[in-house]
Amino acid sequence: PAAPIDHQVRDLGLAEAGRHQIRLAEHEMPGLMALRRRHAAERPLQGARITGSLHMTVQTAVLIETLVALGAQVRWSSCNIFSTQDEAAAAVVVGPDGTPDDPCGVPVFAWKGETVDEYWRLLGRAFDWSGEAARAGADWIGPNLILDDGADATAFLHLGARAEQVPEDAGRPERPGVEEQALWAEIDRILADRPGWFTGAAAGIIGTSEETTTGVHRLAHLDRIGRLRWPVIDVNDSVTKSKFDNRYGIRHSLPDGLDRGTDVLIGGKVAFVCGYGDVGKGAAEALRGQGARVIVSEIDPICALQAAMDGFQVARLEDVAGEVDILITATGDRDVVTVPVLLALKDHAIVGNIGHFDNEIDMAALEALPGAERVRIKPQVDEWRLPNGRSVLVLSEGRLLNLGNATGHPSFVMSTSFTNQVLAQMELFAAPDRHAVGVHRLPKTLDELVARLHLDALGVRLTELTSAQADYLDVPVEGPYKPEHYRY
Ligand code: NAI
């Protein structure tokens, strides 16, 4: 009999509920299903061993099963302690044809409500392919591709390999925060148990495909300082990713998170959105759509002017904090909401983050504030009673509220993102030497393909260029239609 599927999830008994949701999601993910139909026979990912670190949701389950349908072996953990949907994780482990007693799906290491120690431990398990090695009768195998969201998985291998190779300059923080302590504890555990593992694993990686803005920033920084070890495909900056998921996805999942977390009426309230990039635009539009009066802050004059032209008041948070009922951060920056701001907000204001990391709201300073008291309302919803007698409601402990308090973006928009992810994995695996070490984007032809794969489901009929028109515009009839610098 085959060895059991390695896993750590909440409860395999949830698999049936998860499978129903996955089945419905497949119907809403035409891009991924089209890739299955187009490529399942030739199995272009046969031989790919993918370690994935991305919110373990129902939509991610459809992504994982698409990678498997294309021939890949996969191990998975979540990229956020609160974002896993336990029924999806269970269904992926059990697989479409397995049972909870006889799972035959994909190894997943994730549950909703991990501690930060568990988080890094579970990522370590997604990187540990020793079970697969034993099954293959090999001494050692590791992953050859990483599918990342926020770059934690890629950074983890880089830090560990550097700790092995240049221990005196490994980047260990002198005064680590809680998160860094947990990260380094896992690295140190592997360094002790499996000497040389990081170097071996890093040497085997063909590339990373990165999902989000913050992850791309981190990887581009590694590249700039000359430390990046392999090519990265920046999926975020496909037009069919950031101009859709970041914007239209948030337009749906931000109000969903606010509703499930608080059920407070948004209409009539003053909402403040920090950052008017792709995510901030979707957030501001959604809040306005619910009848809030929305104020925006920006550091970038172009985005500030855009917000003003879109009809939003643009102000500094500290100048208007006393009017704010709902405060949302969408910057990917740090220390955007500080304790003085929290103290200045209206009583019972709702505070939440939809950027990638929890340092946008200075939670550490709030926790250390003398006289502040946390009252748990329910999981991922805390009332913080402040020393000035007011309260604020903090969602998901300052982490992504749309994934912590709700279930993230809906399937259709995640299909556009994840179709890019699968194409990026295929691109890296098909031609391991095609890309230099650095951060690359998918070609525009593939970006247009992703969009095309989603038109039929919405009943969209494209107008076709005549050859005379194509000549006139100087573009091919079949595309691509825009130059690289076009901004959509
Ligand atoms: P972006 O770069 O398009 O927008 C961020 C904006 O924030 C920029 O315009 C920047 O000028 C502005 N900004 C930076 N520091 C600021 C400050 N101190 N005050 C006010 N504005 C400031 O990035 P994008 O794509 O909108 O992503 C934002 C964050 O959301 C990233 O962390 C990204 O990883 C994350 N994200 C979250 C998603 C979710 O489901 N919650 C989905 C997609 C992205």
TrEMBL record:
Domain S-adenosyl-L-homocysteine hydrolase NAD binding: 246-408
Pathway(s) the chain acts in: Amino-acid biosynthesis; L-homocysteine biosynthesis; L-homocysteine from S-adenosyl-L-homocysteine: step 1/1
SMART domains linked: AdoHcyase, AdoHcyase_NAD
UniProt-listed InterPro entries: Adenosylhomocyst_ase-like_sf, Adenosylhomocysteinase-like, Ado_hCys_hydrolase_NAD-bd, NAD(P)-bd_dom_sf, S-Ado-L-homoCys_hydrolase_CS
GO cellular component: cytosol
GO biological process, one term: L-homocysteine biosynthetic process
EC nos: 3.13.2.1
Cofactor section: NAD(+)
Keywords: Cytoplasm, Hydrolase, NAD, One-carbon metabolism
Ligand binding (NAD(+)): 212-214, 246, 275-282, 298, 354-356, 402, 409
Function of the molecule: May play a key role in the regulation of the intracellular concentration of adenosylhomocysteine.
Record family assignment: Belongs to the adenosylhomocysteinase family.
Record-given protein name: Adenosylhomocysteinase
